[in-house]
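Hey, I'm writing a tutorial for new members on how sequence and structure tokens pair up, and I'd like a real worked example in the thread rather than a made-up one. If someone can provide the structure for the chain below, I'll link this post from the tutorial.
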Amino acid sequence: MGADEGIAGSDAAGTRWRAEGGLADHVDEAGFLRRLAVSIRMAMLQEQRLALVMLGAPARLTPRDQLSQVRAAVRVTDCVARVDADRYAVLLEVDTLAGALCASGKVAGLFGAQAGLPAALAVFPDDGEDAAGLWQALAEAFAQSRALRAGIVRVARAHVTRADARQGLAAELPEALRRRALHLCYQPTLGLHSGAIAGLEALARWQHPRRGLLVAADFIAEVNTPAAAEIFNLAMFEQALLQLRAWHAAGLRLSLAVNLSAPMLGCADLADQLLVRLQRSEVPLACVTLELPDAALAELPDAALRNLFTLAAAGLCLCIDDFGCGTASMFALRDLPVEMLKMDVGRVGGLGDDASDAAIVESVLTLGRRLGKRVVAKGVENAAQLERLVALGCEYVQGRHVAPPLAAQEVARWCQLRRARQAGEAAPWADDAQP
């Protein structure tokens, strides 16, 4: 139910861009299309988006210098193709439409500051459902950008203004809830010491009839009033409790974290609403965590504070999500009965080669230990990040390198694979136990 973030903000897909790097491997157009086709299949399975960027390069640079600059601006895992003498294409894995827009802006900005250089964007599945369709959309947008000298252009037939998109989704949300078009998937948190599952986070998905599968970050901004937030949050909370009860009945004693959006915290009867549903579900309160967005904790009204203390006293765990990314982290630690902190290693510190990244993450881990709080590092996207976290003494991790968001029916199998992994001899945090 959280707003899982894309390359622009977090998560989820890894946000560290290479600050330096020489000439790296690239592919030709045919190889790029083959890679794109494979990536589309993976994106469909993992409920991800893909962003394709095409950019013009300045003729004053040699092909080697052009390619070197493009590779230095993207991640090592991003696929780069030299289409012709002055065009390059880049394939980026992202979680959200917002992440695609931000990531494409970063890449296009490499040469875009130089007048007259075109750039284009196409997003899967929004602008095409297969490699050929996406490539055609990208080529059309690039041609428009070159003709109009308009900077980065997204294919016209799929492009809508942010205001239009927001208005459309806001109007469609109530009907989507009635049709049960919104559902949850679940991303595990892993205990590094034991290798055992430490819990799950419920993440909202919207199967939109025209725009395809939307992750929470694509539509959570529509829930921007207390009334709308209450409808959305309570619907997802009830769905999460039903699933948790089903797992418990099947012998899976799992705990589950559910996000509360910022406007929901302002509901005067928040504690009553949640506790009534918990009582009805017969789920142990100790198995439920409420994740509170750091950015919403700056000036909570007295009613919100009373609700949070009531919920904590009843036995629910309170967690500050995206700890350190807002302005109230330290005040919330002092004033609220929180037991857990979640920091996004992509936003708080990327754990790259820069020593300051590790210092930031280590300081949060140390603070959590001294205050007796559990600290979860989320947004763990690769083995290098995980190894650094192990070395820093991190106890809990969450991210696609550990496990992607899973459908409810996949959770039992993932738990079985984790138990099998624990019985083996390899490190308990190894990543080959994913479904």
